[in-house]
Protein 1
Amino acid sequence: MKVFFSSRGFVDFEAPVHMSDSQLDRFIAFMQEMFPGRIEVRDVDEKTKEGGPTESKIKDWGLNELHLLVGSGSNEHIGKKLDRTIMSVKMKRGNFVPSFMVWAKRNGCSLPPRKEDLKRFVEETGHYENRDISGR
Amino acid sequence: MKIGILVGDKGNVDLDSAVCMTDAQKDTFVSFLKELFSPEIVIETRTEEMRDERIGDKFFFREWHNEEYEKLLEIDTKTVEDLVEEIGRSWMSVNIKRGQFIPDYLEWISRKGKNLMTDDTKKLIEGFMKYRESQKQGKKILRQKKKKLLEKLEALQSPDRRKALQLNAIINKLDLKELIEEDNKKTTEIRKMILDIDNKLDEPY
């Protein structure tokens, strides 16, 4: 994240920054200490990107599909193969793959991962509770 | 004068305007942010133009920087949740960006015969980022090449070209049909080269 500063002494964020509750508390406390008596905290409704209406159904991810995600196939290739949108593949990959990799490294798994490892990961972490992991 | 901290309903935070600070205050502010987030991703940038729009005025798009991409690539040690706090972006934006990046990274690792589980993560990331940068430079050169080819194609297909061929045929007693045929061959070759370039440009980093 960029922190802008000007020759006239003004400082600003490049853009709004995402903070967790604890980060926000710390930020407010810091600013209150730095600028005592001057800080006002206000709630704001954010503008979000307009998303169109969607009729997409949520499809569970089976073991074979998860196995494809941890490989090196492109999102486009996997989307076509599994009849899923590229966005859904991206979103699943963005979350599932790192979570699995962290677990795999900790458990000494090799790459490419075996389906047994994936199954163990899903069962142990409850990552996909109530999902069918029978190998669909 | 009051300083407003604006807290958005989606977890984003902003100042209500740029804040006037002494150099010492600015340094303390930046140091604090480097403790609050991952220090590598907090970058001081000099500018004379501050933004007017604040959170709630519009949807903000924040450009992704190399330092953040490097964080995204720590896929064997950092979950999305870890990164949200480290780089100050929403879960959704980190998740989607990672999903975009991961296939290229895994493919590069596989192609290079590296091992995500055993090789040094930092070295892997450095290697991939260098590769990505060289791909970017490569694409820039390809675009320049394409531009020159398009200019050549336009010249070959212009009405003046046909007149020039006719003149050449008359002056040098050459077969006009053969000259046209040669031009057509060149046109086909250039079109093929442009198509090849387009295919390479379509490849991800």
Protein 2
Amino acid sequence: MGKALLRDNFDLILLAILEDAPKYGLEIITEAKSRTDGYFDFKEGSLYPALHRLEKAGFVEAEFAPSTMGGPRRRYYQLTESGVKQLAEKREAWERFNGAVGALWGQNETETGRDCK
Amino acid sequence: MKQKPEGTASEHYLQQATRGLWGRKRREVREELEAHLHERVLAHRIAGLSETNAVERALAELGSPREVSVGMARLYTLPTMMGSGAALAVVCASVVALLPSGAAQALPGTPYFPTAKCVEALDAGADGFLSGNCIQTNDALWLDQSALRQVLEPQGVTFSKTSAPGSNEGILGLTFPTSKLVYVPLGSPDAYVMDDEGNHPALPGYLSLWSLLRGASYQDGIELEVKGWDNPSVRLGDVSFQVGTEARPMAGAEFYASYLGEIYFADLWDGLGGNPYIVNPDRGVRHGPNFYKSALRETVITMPNAKPGVYGIAMRLDLDDVQLDQPALTSSLPWNGAVLFSVERADAQGQVSFALPNEPLRFVEAFTAESEPGTAVLVRLSGTDFDNGWYEVVVPKRVAMR
């Protein structure tokens, strides 16, 4: 899986991270990195235009809330109904893609692929 | 490009990352990034780094501020995105039905002037802004993309259209002959123009000239040149076009005042004061309060390097202090400031005269960057080789008030 593929699925990753609770930028980045085992290693600044793009598209909504650390306010994002739908659709598309590639390589989805010899 | 020292590294990052945004959107994005920086720095300090190293590390993790500013600019630099984030944004200009002109290179511009209905509508209380704001100097120049195509495609520019994922908003991609790609947002269905009948056609096929100039200037390898006063011409690298024709002229004062307004809100403004706008009080291009003639003095400014061309002043005023022939406007904002935009041509010796209110002038490089409050910024708008890509801040060599 190359960087280009990750980029294309940036939206999916962000929406998935927001699935369970509203989160703010730094939280989202930390989770993106840890949940993808550090694979998702990107410059953090690029997160914000992506989040704003999702907001403008109506998939997330955001609002400021006081920081617990006494600094500038944090901006929290959460999925909208439209975002939930978008996530489901993208997820489905990704799974179809994954299945197709897996079939192409002659592996089925349950193999980890780590023991290619 | 000359680098100007801008205070701390954090401050520099925040300014650069929000460049191109203005108003409330700029403040909000800035705050969001500030929160990020603040917490990151704190975390690094807790881990044992010094303040300086913590900041350096946090900034390195953030990456280039340009990535943020360019990414945001694609979403928000539509001039009609006024601070409230409301879906409805009124662009008060008269849209000219653009037809290809006789001269192959001339692109009919959109003369910028207020319509009565427009002023009424905003007076009736759109968004808490003053009637003066109906005349947005930074909203002025809308270009019909098909007219632009007709003039640029023969010169080797290819046009592509894309949109932000999941959105209907158009983004125009212009690929220049040198393969440089510039993105410009197209007017969204939420941006519309009010004509004298109170109709509001949407502007999906229009782009802001300023977004184009700014976007192109971000590309190394596309040199910007602006020439002339009335019906000026714009050159971007090897392609050029003229704004305005004999049939539909673009007045120099309108063009450059609009240009200056855009620059002011994109880069020079610190988010304070600035309402309402006053443009060229001596030229009859008036929006908002008018001045008593006796309140104006001729101010002769001599440029360093004696460079001729068009210059603009953005000057901060306290409405309570200056002499106006209208009652001072009250503002929904907690201050009573105004900004005056004035544009004039310098002579061959690099001297330019502005008629300005009799207020102290303290020239600074940007209102954002000064520890001591400044009252005016002087900007070169025409010519080429701009320090800031699409304009250049100038510190006068000499200022004389008559």
